[in-house]
Specification:
By secondary structure, this protein is an alpha/beta fold. The chain folds into two domains: 172 residues, Rossmann fold; 184 residues, Dehydroquinate synthase-like, alpha domain (Up-down Bundle). It has 13 helices and eleven strands. The strands form three sheets. A seven-stranded mixed sheet has the order 1-2-9-6-5-3-4, with helices on both faces. It has a two-stranded antiparallel sheet with strand order 7-8. Strand 7 and strand 8 form a beta hairpin. Helix 6 packs antiparallel against helix 7, helix 6 packs parallel to helix 10 and helix 12 packs across helix 13. It binds nicotinamide-adenine-dinucleotide, the ligand O=C(O)C(=O)C[C@@H](O)[C@H](O)[C@H](O)COP(=O)(O)O and zinc ion. The site of zinc ion has 5 residues, from helix 10. Pathway: Metabolic intermediate biosynthesis; chorismate biosynthesis; chorismate from D-erythrose 4-phosphate and phosphoenolpyruvate: step 2/7.
């Protein structure tokens, strides 16, 4: 008898929308029972997937689901430019043509691009239908699939239109990383390292010691990194689901700079994690200039990022252009930029009195 691979289970116990995060390996073919447990009245599943994961991942899921449900598949072109209003409209029309109703659910299969886009489709179609996240990149498994931020970009303004809409279930199969290219894998390590810096010094130290195992994609090391990251994100989301108290904003460490880098370089030039790694370096340098951290902090972060093979500079970073783009950041209040800045490894704060000349200096320092 072959026993099914039973995934580990974490909970995101939000009062109005609790859901589990299931983390396992080679278990996508058994996904149907987890979906049926969460949505006993489900009749129809629309699999919205990244074109690059049509085979084998989206096909495996369709095969598993079609014995129990009517299924449809909609493919989305790979890459950040797909987080746009044209794709959103195409998907809305696709759902209409597939005769989607309130007993249907979207199954988002892909990285953060498909997760954010399909999540926004789910949040808006018929004023909201259910969806499941099946993240297939490391970045999506440790970050974007959890927490319910969905959205698309506007030209020059990242994630500017969207909604908070929680999934019914996050189904992580580590085996899907087997087809992920090294560049995309490394990009995901930026968000993994972020948790170490913002809230978990012990995890930061673990990453320092285990970077080789991670690069070798050692199964136990990957599971530990994904589980720890998901738990950290779930804890923050639980404390501040809609980013109203400032707690959730800590997950934005490096993102004020990073989002500007993504928009200015042209969506898709940098992967999100790459831009965020450079953004975290700029934020660390800014914190040092504001005497919030010492040189040793910056050296430790740079060393970790280098060992993880993350980029730490952008030669084309222009302070004027960056500042212009950064004013589109959603943390901006009363026309003032606000930054998430560290005080030590494992702790960050939301800071609003930031001298513009120091921001310029930090950008210039990371453009060498
Ligand atoms: N909602 C959130 O909380 C949140 C958090 C972090 C990032 N994001 C968003 O996520 C996006 C970045 O996500 P990403 O890094 O996953 O990028 P992505 O979705 O573009 O995926 C990266 C690349 O990997 C390919 N791919 C995906 N899975 C694969 C697999 N298993 N095998 C082979 N190729 C595969 C894709 O085709 C793509 O080319 C950004 O838009 C970012 O803004 C959202
Ligand atoms: O979930 C969050 O909250 C985050 O900030 C996680 C980030 O890694 C992610 O990139 C998020 O999409 C950024 O949010 P935004 O509100 O700045 O667009
Ligand atoms: Zn991010």
């Amino acid at each position: 008898m072959v026993l099914p691979n039973v995934p580990d289970r974490l909970e995101v116990p939000l009062p109005d929308a609790p859901y589990p995060i299931l983390i396992g390996s080679d278990w996508l073919a058994d996904l149907v029972s987890s979906i049926a447990d969460r949505m006993p009245d489900l009749s129809h599943a629309i699999i919205i997937h990244d074109a690059a994961v049509a085979q084998p991942w989206a096909a495996t899921i369709q095969q598993a689901l079609q014995a129990s449900y009517r299924t449809d598949m909609i493919s989305v072109p790979s890459g950040e430019p797909s987080k746009c209003v044209e794709q959103l409209q195409r998907l809305w029309i696709g759902l209409l043509e597939a005769k989607t109703d309130r007993k249907s659910a979207i199954i988002a299969v892909g990285g953060g691009v498909v997760g954010d886009l399909a999540g926004m489709v789910a949040a808006t179609f018929m004023r909201g239908i259910r969806f499941v996240q099946v993240p297939t990149t490391l970045l999506a498994q440790v970050d974007s699939s959890v927490g319910g931020k969905t959205g698309i970009n506007l030209p020059g303004a990242k994630n500017m239109v969207g909604s908070f809409w929680q999934p019914q279930l996050v189904a992580i199969d580590i085996a899907t990383l087997g087809t992920l290219a090294p560049r995309e894998f490394i990009s995901g390590l930026a968000e993994v390292a972020k948790y170490g810096v913002i809230c978990d010094a012990e995890f930061f130290a673990w990453l320092q010691q285990n970077h080789e195992a991670i690069h070798a994609r050692d199964a136990a090391a990957l599971k530990h990194a994904i589980r720890t990251s998901c738990q950290a994100k779930a804890d923050v989301v639980l404390a501040d689901e809609r980013e109203t108290t400032g707690c959730r904003a800590t997950l934005n460490y490096g993102h004020t700079f990073g989002h500007a880098i993504e928009a200015l370089a042209g969506y898709g030039h940098f992967l999100h994690g790459e831009a965020i790694a450079i953004g975290m370096q700029m934020a660390a340098d800014l914190a040092r200039r504001m005497r919030r951290v010492d040189d040793a902090f910056c050296e430790q972060q740079t060393e970790l990022f280098t060992s993880l093979q993350l980029p730490i500079t952008w030669s084309e970073a222009d302070p004027d252009a960056m500042l212009g783009a950064m004013f589109s950041d959603k943390k901006t209040e009363h026309g003032k930029l606000r930054f998430i800045l560290p005080t030590k490894i494992g702790h960050v704060e939301l800071v609003d009195d930031v001298p513009e000349d120091l921001v310029r200096q930090a950008i210039t320092a990371c453009s060498k």
